[in-house]
């Protein structure tokens, strides 16, 4: 009888893996209704095939009788997520993108593509790779555009590319630089169910998502993985020394849950107005690699926007990284005026509250700069709300259509950023597989904020950010006490944490 029960449990898990859209649909819809009363705009979002290792974990959990966690993991992997591309040849990426966008079009859904192939990405750290030259990158972008064709897409363009410029990469490696930079693994295309051979390698997308494509794809794919993080450890000779923020903190008390409610908040304690100290913009004019980076991003914007059916969002880091006055000039130089807008919090953990306010301030500053203002005069998150209100009243356009919009990554921010309780590590690497984080708001285009086009799951939840040494010699993660999987490989412990600590809850 016991054997029959286990067989039935595994059979149920396999069946659920192929039919979960029905199960997860009600869960996702309930979360969407909680998040915003406004109806969803445009097409529903596309669900790519899941990481094969996730189905193996679901089967193991069901075999052990942990049906609740198994159902939660199934719901997680069958929630709309971005499809990642990088490192493929132009011919191959054109074919893969065409398969994904065609499959999405047949299903009447909107695919989100994360393009991650810019030269010199991630300062040569965990997510090293990408095109070798500007010309090679432009040919790759041309191929992506060919694959998209006349089908509707949303593109998150090159996470990390502007918040982590080549000029931000230091000249000497720090003490916790890995001895070898992990190479991207080869990813066989996930299939529609868990019946796959054990031991299949998973995709290498550190803090990102598997390069999953349409179900008809049978040849392996390779894809990189971004780590949009401050203070990234680079490969020897290229450590990051610029852009490192202060440790993440909980949202400051005066920040409203909805930035539109700034004017409804009680007044802060009156104090003499003082100009905030602004972080100086790194010198980029003398750095040929940085100048090439701007050229590459601008080419991608121009090429993809010319399709007429693509919405393109540039990298703007996250609320705990660059000041508004620092990231805005980078966005402008990279061609944000021609793009749909910018993307925030990709692969990170900042709260929806902080991210929404940061997005509004960036958008307002972009409009102010376009009208002749100086970025140094733009408002920052640490201003008092009285001064924020005054600046926005004086300079923010009244019509949201006159401002750049943004999308956010809510895949892992349900519990906000992780701050180590004790400073026991030389580099806590708060971005790298932090413990007890949870899934965030479900993907939706109904955010209730006219500037916030969509909350997306850009990063593939459940895949490792890489080997986290936190200033030690490794190989174990001193916080978790285990050796973390390589960047982009499935991380069962983290996957279960994301389900367990999800806000809103994912499990029935």
Give structural notes.
- By secondary structure, this protein is of the alpha/beta class.
- The chain contains 10 helices and 9 strands.
- It has helices at residues 2-35, 52-63, 67-77, 90-107, 134-148, 288-305, 324-333, 352-370, 385-395, 492-500; strands at 83-85, 112-115, 153-157, 186-187, 221-222, 310-315, 341-344, 405-409, 452-456.
- A 7-stranded parallel β-sheet has the order 1-2-3-6-7-8-9.
- The protein is globular.
- The model is unreliable at 17-40, 171-260 and 263-286 (pLDDT under 50).
Give the H and E element order: HHHEHEHEEEHEHEHHEEH
- E-strand count: 9
Shape: globular
Structural category: alpha/beta
Helix content: 25-40%
Strand content: 5-15%
Count of DSSP-assigned helices:
10
Biggest sheet: strands side by side, in what order? Answer: 1-2-3-6-7-8-9
Biggest sheet overview: 7 strands, parallel
Straight-line distance between termini: 27 Å
Let me know the average pLDDT: 77
Radius of gyration: 22 Å
Could you name the ranges where pLDDT drops below 50 across 5 or more consecutive residues?
17-40, 171-260, 263-286
């Amino acid at each position: 009888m016991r054997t029959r029960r286990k067989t039935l449990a595994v059979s149920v898990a396999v069946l659920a893996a192929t039919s979960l859209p029905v199960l997860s649909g009600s869960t996702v819809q309930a979360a969407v209704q909680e998040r915003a009363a406004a109806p969803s705009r445009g097409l529903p979002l596309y669900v790519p095939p899941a990481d094969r290792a996730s189905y193996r974990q679901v089967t193991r959990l069901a075999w052990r009788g942990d049906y609740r966690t198994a159902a939660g993991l199934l719901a997680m992997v069958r929630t709309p997520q971005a499809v990642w591309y990088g490192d493929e040849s132009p011919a191959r990426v054109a074919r893969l993108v065409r398969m994904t966008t065609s499959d999405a079009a047949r299903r009447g859904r909107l695919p989100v593509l994360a393009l991650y192939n810019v030269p010199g990405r991630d300062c040569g750290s965990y997510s090293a790779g990408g095109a070798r030259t500007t010309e090679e990158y432009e040919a790759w972008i041309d191929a992506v555009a060919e694959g998209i064709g006349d089908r509707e897409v949303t593109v998150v363009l090159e996470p990390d590319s502007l918040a982590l410029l080549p000029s931000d990469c230091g000249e000497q490696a720090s003490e916790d630089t890995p001895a070898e930079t992990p190479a991207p693994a080869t990813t066989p295309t996930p299939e529609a169910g868990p019946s796959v051979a054990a031991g299949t390698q998973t995709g290498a997308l550190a803090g990102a998502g598997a390069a999953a494509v349409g179900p008809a794809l049978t040849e392996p794919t390779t894809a990189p993985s971004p780590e949009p993080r401050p203070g990234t450890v680079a490969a020897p000779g290229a450590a990051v020394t610029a852009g490192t923020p202060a440790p993440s903190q909980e949202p400051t008390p005066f920040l409203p849950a909805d930035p539109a409610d700034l004017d409804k908040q009680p007044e802060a304690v009156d104090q003499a107005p003082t100009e905030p100290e602004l972080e100086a913009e790194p010198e980029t004019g003398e750095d040929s690699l940085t100048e090439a980076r701007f050229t590459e991003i601008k080419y991608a914007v121009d090429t993809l926007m010319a399709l007429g059916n693509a919405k393109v969002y540039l990298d703007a880091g996250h609320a705990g990284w660059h000041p508004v006055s620092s990231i805005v000039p980078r966005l402008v130089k990279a061609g944000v005026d021609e793009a749909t807008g910018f993307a925030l919090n990709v692969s990170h953990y900042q709260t929806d509250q902080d991210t929404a306010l940061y997005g509004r301030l960036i958008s307002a500053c972009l409009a102010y700069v376009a009208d002749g203002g100086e970025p140094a005069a733009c408002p920052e998150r640490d201003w008092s709300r009285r001064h924020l209100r005054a600046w926005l009243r004086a300079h923010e356009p009244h019509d949201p259509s006159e401002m750049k919009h943004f999308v956010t990554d809510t895949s892992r921010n349900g519990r906000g950023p992780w701050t180590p309780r004790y400073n026991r590590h030389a580099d806590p690497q708060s971005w790298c597989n932090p413990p007890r984080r949870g899934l965030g708001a479900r993907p939706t285009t109904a955010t209730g904020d006219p500037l916030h086009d969509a909350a997306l799951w850009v990063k593939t939840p459940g895949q490792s950010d890489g080997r986290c040494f936190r200033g030690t010699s490794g190989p174990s993660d001193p916080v978790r006490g285990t050796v973390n999987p390589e960047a982009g490989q499935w991380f069962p412990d983290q996957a279960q944490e994301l389900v367990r600590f999800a806000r809103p809850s994912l499990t029935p």
